[in-house]
TrEMBL record:
Protein name: Damage-inducible protein DinB
Molecular function per GO: metal ion binding
Keywords of the record: Metal-binding
UniProt record similarity statement: Belongs to the DinB family.
Pfam families per record: DinB
Origin: domain of life: Bacteria
Annotated binding of a divalent metal cation, by residue: H134, H138
Length: 166
């Protein structure tokens, strides 16, 4: 697989994950944002926000080559509709960034930091892949939260117990 086809694959993977992810986000009511399954777990609102925001990370990674946890502006949404609107914005930004991504950029470093502390410093190509995986992981976590709250889980890679078709 050449580098151009890797970019195309990232784009296709992002697009393929958007519909089911959007369905998950739009089904989580803000009245459940403070709920969590265990005292050590994140709240449903934070998890929904994270699933909403991760596509934005892709755009930022490509455009700036860095995310600094001390200065990064996280998603601030108080309602389900605000969350869905942000998700649509962020996925469009990610798609546009991937369309503009060049082969040369793939080998440039991406740095994840918290101020002066560097947590990751490796080629962008590796981090795009892990970010997409991270996104899917947290969406899966969100579907468990949904199930525990009797929210219909959408079909994702095939039928779910709640949706027989996709």
């Amino acid at each position: 697989m050449n580098d151009t086809s890797v970019i195309t694959q990232f784009y296709k993977e992002l697009e393929a994950e958007i519909p089911a992810t959007r369905k998950c986000i739009e089904r989580v009511s803000e009245n459940l944002y403070t709920w969590k399954p265990h005292e050590k777990s994140m709240t449903m609102g934070y998890l929904t926000s994270l699933v909403t925001e991760i596509p934005r990370w892709i755009a930022v990674m490509i455009k700036s080559g860095e995310i600094d946890f001390q200065t990064f502006q996280h998603t601030q949404a108080n309602t389900t509709q605000e969350m869905v609107t942000l998700f649509d914005t962020y996925t469009n930004e990610a798609k546009q960034a991937l369309k503009e991504l060049t082969v040369d950029q793939l080998s440039k470093p991406f740095v994840l930091r918290s101020g002066n502390q560097i947590m990751i410093n490796s080629p962008l190509i590796e981090n795009l892949s892990s970010t997409l995986n991270h996104w899917v992981h947290h969406r899966g976590q969100l579907t468990v939260y949904m199930r525990l709250n009797n929210i219909d889980v959408p079909s994702i890679y095939g039928p779910s117990a709640d949706e027989k078709t996709f």
